[in-house]
Amino acid sequence: MTETAMRRGRPGYDQRGILLVAVAAFNEYGYDATSIGMLAERLGLSKSAIYHHVASKDDLLALALDEALDGLEGVLAESGATTGSAADRLAFVLRGAVAVLTDKLPYVTLLLRVRGNTDMERAALARRRAFDRAVADLVVEARDEGSLRSDIDAGIVSRLLFGMINSIVEWYRPDGPETPAQLADDLLALAFDGLRTP
Amino acid sequence: MTETAMRRGRPGYDQRGILLVAVAAFNEYGYDATSIGMLAERLGLSKSAIYHHVASKDDLLALALDEALDGLEGVLAESGATTGSAADRLAFVLRGAVAVLTDKLPYVTLLLRVRGNTDMERAALARRRAFDRAVADLVVEARDEGSLRSDIDAGIVSRLLFGMINSIVEWYRPDGPETPAQLADDLLALAFDGLRTP
After folding, report:
1. Which of B87, B167, B194 is closest, CB to CB, to A191?
2. Could you tell me the CATH number of the domain that includes residue A157?
3. Interacting residues of B59 by C-beta distance below 8 A, sequence separation 6+
C-alpha cells in the first residue's frame, strides 16, 4: 500500500509520501544527521516543495511519532482492552501492540529511539510511558484477580514483556516467514504458558 | 570496586580508570560525538597522559567491547553451559547472561549500540552473533530433547529471550530493589513456566 502510494505520489508527493521517506532517513542516519536538503534530494523535490507540505523537520518527527502513538493508544481504546478479565485484556493489548509494531515498524522504531531532547520529544515519551503504565496496571490487575502468578514482581514482568515486544523492531522483517499474528501467538504462548513442555 | 579503583587512581588514572570514564561518555553522548579532548577534560588529564595508556579512541571502544564480550563468552565456557540437559544448560546461560549484563552494564550497553561502522565493530558484532547463535542452538537442542514445547518457533523464541535480556540495559538500576539473582529468577520463571497461575 505504501509502495503504491509512493509511486502514485511521485513527483507530486503528498505529506504522507514525504513522511515515509523522512522516517526511513531518520532511522538510517539519525534525526540530527538528516536535513531537509537530504530529504529533498531523496524525493527529487525542491526544499520549498517540501515546506509546502510540512513546516519543519521537527513537524515531520511529530507526525511520525503521532503515527506510532495513535496506533498504540488505539489498542487501549478497543473494547477488547476495556471489557473481560484482566488476563484477557492484557493478552488483547499485547497482541495489539505486536500488530502495531509490525504494521507501523519504521514509526515505532523511531519512537523507541527518542531520548527526549525537545519538548515535543518529551511529550511523545510521556505518551509512550502512559501506554507502558496501562500495560503494567493490567499485569497488576491480572495478578490480583488470580490469573497470573504472584511470586514474580509485576514491575519486572511488565518491563520484560516490553523487552520482548520492543525487540521486534530490531529483527522483524515484513517479508519474513512469520506473520504478525503468528508472532503474537508465539509471544503470548511464551509469556503466559512458558517454554517448558507441559 | 570500580568506585574505589577510580578514587585510588586519581589523578594518576590507569587504563581501567580511563576506560570507565570513556564508556560512560560514549553511552551519554555517543561514540562519534565523544573526543579524546572531552575525556581529558572529564579526567582532569592532558591528552598526552591519556595517549600514554591507550593508542586511540578506537582502542578504548575495542577494550570496552572486549569487556562485554569476554563476559558473555566466559558464561559459555563454564561447566554449567557444557554439561547436563540442554534445558539446564540453557537456563544456566540465560542466568549467566543476566549476571553479565547487570555486572558490566555500561560495557554491554555500548555493545548493544554498535552498528558495525568499522572492521573492529564488525568483529565485535560477529562475536555477539556467535553468542546469540550458541543460545539459539541450545533452544533447538532443548526442544529436540523434549524439554521445551515444539509448537513455537525456536528462532522466534531465541529472539524474544534476547529481547527480554537485552532490555535490561534500558531499565536496570544497580541501586534498585531487585538483585541480579532475583532478576534472573524472574526472567527464567517467565520464560520457562510463563505468567499464568498453575
Report:
1. B194
2. 1.10.357.10
3. none
